[in-house]
Amino acid sequence: MSQMLRSSSYIRCLLGSSKQQAVLFGVKRWSTAAAAQRAIPQEWDNAKPYEDMPGPKPLPILGNAWRFIPKIGNLSGFGFIELGQYLQKHYGDIAKLSGIPGRTDMVMVFDPDDIEKVFRNEGPWPIRETVECFVYYRSVTRKDIFQGVGGLVTVQGEEWQKFRSKVNQIMMQPRATKLYIGPIDSVADDFVERIRALRDEKLEMPSDFNNEMYKWGLESIAYIALDTRLGCFNPDLKPDSEPQKMIDAVQIMFDAMYKMEIQVPFWKIMSTPAWRALVNSADYFVDVSLKYIKQAMERLKNLPPDSDRELTVLEKLLAKDPDIRTTVVMALDMLGAGIDTTSYTAVVVMYMLSKNQDKQEKLFQEVQRVLPNKKEPITAEKLNEMKYLRACIKETMRISPITGGNQRNLSKDLVLGNYRVPKGTSIMMPGLLLSRMDKHFPQANKFIPERWLKDEPESKMKLHSFVTLPFGFGPRTCIGRRFAELEIETLLAKVVRNFRIEYNYGDMKFVSKLLYTPSSPLKFKMIDREN
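Request: output the structure for the sequence above.
Response:
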């Protein structure tokens, strides 16, 4: 569930418009065990000098910053997709972007072997750029609440590892996920009824259906993070209701972080509207989370000693660490990163199915076989049977992932693309671009879920496992992956079981900000299945 901030750091590295945090390169944060050996001596000696790596040449004084100036620079207005395409077209499978004031050099790699090499050499404390404004909010503005506990998305090194070790066993266990199958199934059933209530005379969803998807995302993740049903599907939900204000707060935070991290960072010297919006929205999230966490603490305190009820994720976090700050931070990270990410992923899967009716019918046949009764509850065993459903989701994440790729700062010298790349360099790995290349995926622009199924002919070609990594890789892989997959799989199974999905408004348009998401109205047509 760290996709949001992972994507933010990815885009910020590409555009190079804010300063690098010194903490990212503090050698003292790397122990002998964490900082593995340097590049293999012979390989290093035979590689080309870093200075010879191709890339846009910086001008004296101006460097490469001028390239991003509107109406002047040749890279003005480029998002991560456009910039990646430009660099590969002009410089090949490895390119360097240097000479941007206040920024470390950025190297973009397009060879999956190099991507694998970066991940295999990241050590136990991978360094990934953080979102400076968010770090400042937690460490300075609201230090009275967080008191030095930054969480997984804002800290580095040993501090990050200590926090991750506290929550890893609780968040990553399959058993923890199974505890929520029933509640998540209930949320999906409620959303199916919500869809029926929202349809117009054409059986189409309203133009603001994205807000309804946010409600589903919030209702699902709030049950996991806060042990509560918020009531997002109440037909009389007011604009100033707690659920809607939480949804709005997430959108405001996304927009504010994008402005502060990608545009000129005036917030560092003065209080800007974007900064105030971030603080107000984040404060609201903190207040709501604290309310429900305190309720969970009371339930836990009053739980009989001989109770055999399995504790929820929230209760386990509270029981494992008496410091409430750990639980608050983890709940906030789940809420902040678990609404838009799951919602948009589910939306794009529905869009892909609507444009590939033969694949949708194949999926329906599978879901109907596993769930002969539309109202039948989903179980772990039934989800395991839906292999084509998981293939559809995986194929969607290949074609249209919500993040452009992954980023790491090298913890040691490394040879990439036969060039010597020094420790501390920011490495960009544009998975979105790689996964759309025919050389990695035949007919890359086609939606072919069968390529992920072992028994299908389309799966016979060997695929490089480091081309598409929507949840990241290694120690910093998305900690909420199992919960996100549970939510998305359950919702899609119930939607496809009940409706045939159409989208009759041409090709959906997408926009790249903190996430790569649809910008077209989500006017899906939901046609009832007769059986």
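The beta strands are 94-97, 106-109, 406-409, 414-416, 419-421, 426-429, 499-502, 510-512, 516-518, 525-528.
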